[in-house]
Amino acid sequence: MINLILCGGSGTRLWPLSRTLMPKQFVKLFNHKSLFQLTIERNSTLCREQLIVSNTEQYFLALDQLEELKKVNNRYLLEPIGRNTAPAIALACMALGKEEIILVTPSDHLIKNQVAYEKAIVEAEILAKEGFLVTFGIKPTFAETGFGYIEASGTDVKAFHEKPDCKTAEMYVEAGNYYWNSGMFCFKVGVFLSELEAYAPEIFLTCKTAYEHAKSDGMIRILHEDMLLIPEDSIDYAVMEKSQKVKVIPSDIGWSDVGSFDALCHELDNDESNNFIMSNKHVSLIDVHDLIVIDTEDALLISQKGSSQKVKEIVTRLKKENLELTTTHATVHRPWGTYSVLEDKPGYKIKKIMVKPGKRLSLQKHFHRNEHWIVVSGTATVQVEDKTYIVRENESTYIKAGEIHRLENQGKIPIVLIEAQVGSYTGEDDIVRIEDDYKRENV
């Protein structure tokens, strides 16, 4: 069995912890491990191989976190833009044999009962071998209005139901045969593709074309223009709600989608006043109760418990007012290392940059800014136009606007440097890449 791991999504309901370029599945929330890492560990003993479907920007986060787990022999399919779960799963299936059985799992869910989980997977694999599309229904613990429900009779699916109102959700829970839709699936590749072709032919055909045009350089890279042509739809709407081959495994596996801070509160400790606080600094609260306080380097969120679903509304507004607050943290991860913005004012920006051993930035130039580099630790190999030279600890160099340049770490320890940008515009999109080891199209 092959584990297909879906890494899309930006987790906006967990802002400011989760951002577009550091979504919730990669935030280390549980004993210094991320939900993505827990997903890898949970399924690596059940499946002989893991195929990761990721956005091109998030691929490097996945790679770093897999290296931490010492799990480096994985396959990747990279999407330039997201088109929901049906196309993501279809493109991955097209890279596999029709008789392969795959276990589709999101990368951002928490499962606490491993024994019950493994039992459910075994049951699902048996049904998948018989030619069924298998989904997993989570036994509800309360009347949740934020999930879709599966109405079942044993393993037979009677109906899929949209997110209900509170009264309907209570009825579902009381009935005992309604389950939360987990977003996990198990089936034969050929069965799924056949059902997709029957019920969503446009998705099937555009995915087939996109896969045939994809670049393969150790991973599968879907072209941007082909991805745009694929209709956007979920596997539930495209296939599962229409197919006559669907089965469900009722599951009581300690599952949570960790989809809000209220959900996260249930998994992590609260203080004695029933407040939930996440911060790198000491936070004291007086005579307040049932608050959620999320403090990051560049943003502070305070919410009443029970209202954290409204975070999505804040993110929508911020996208219009301050896009960077929704996309990046103060520290941004790149394939070569990280950078942290220390100060950003009109006319200048100051960063701390860390470059990992053996890595280098793209060969690039800027139109609107000059750059001063001061090496704090490590030894930097710097290329400016046709000259290459070494910059050591406590030494500096200067790059004029328009000059082609590159920074490389040929040493054994990380390079840490301070970069001072001075110019009329210091945005991240003022980068023209001439050559890039990581085949990136954007910054």
From TrEMBL:
Report keywords, A-Z: GTP-binding, Isomerase, Nucleotide-binding, Nucleotidyltransferase, Transferase
Report the PANTHER family cross-referenced here.
MANNOSE-1-PHOSPHATE GUANYLYLTRANSFERASE (PTHR46390)
Q: What is this protein called?
A: mannose-1-phosphate guanylyltransferase
By sequence similarity, the record places it as follows:
Belongs to the mannose-6-phosphate isomerase type 2 family.
Q: Which reaction does it catalyse?
A: alpha-D-mannose 1-phosphate + GTP + H(+) = GDP-alpha-D-mannose + diphosphate
Q: Name one Pfam family in it.
A: MannoseP_isomer
Identify the EC number(s): 2.7.7.13
Q: Which InterPro entries does this chain map to?
A: GMPP_N, Man1P_GuaTrfase/Man6P_Isoase, Man6P_isomerase-2_C, ManC/GMP-like_b-helix, Mannose-6P_isomerase_type2, NTP_transferase_dom, Nucleotide-diphossugar_trans, RmlC-like_jellyroll
Quick check: keyword Isomerase in the entry?
yes
Tell me where in this chain the Nucleotidyl transferase domain is found: 3-270
What GO MF terms are annotated? GTP binding; isomerase activity; mannose-1-phosphate guanylyltransferase (GTP) activity
> Gene3D superfamilies under this entry?
Jelly Rolls (2.60.120.10), Spore Coat Polysaccharide Biosynthesis Protein SpsA, Chain A (3.90.550.10)
Q: Which SUPFAM superfamilies match?
A: Nucleotide-diphospho-sugar transferases, RmlC-like cupins
Q: Could you tell me the Gene Ontology terms of the biological process aspect for this record?
A: GDP-mannose biosynthetic process; polysaccharide biosynthetic process
MannoseP isomerase/GMP-like beta-helix domain sequence ranges: 273-318
What sequence ranges are listed for the domain Mannose-6-phosphate isomerase type II C-terminal? 324-436
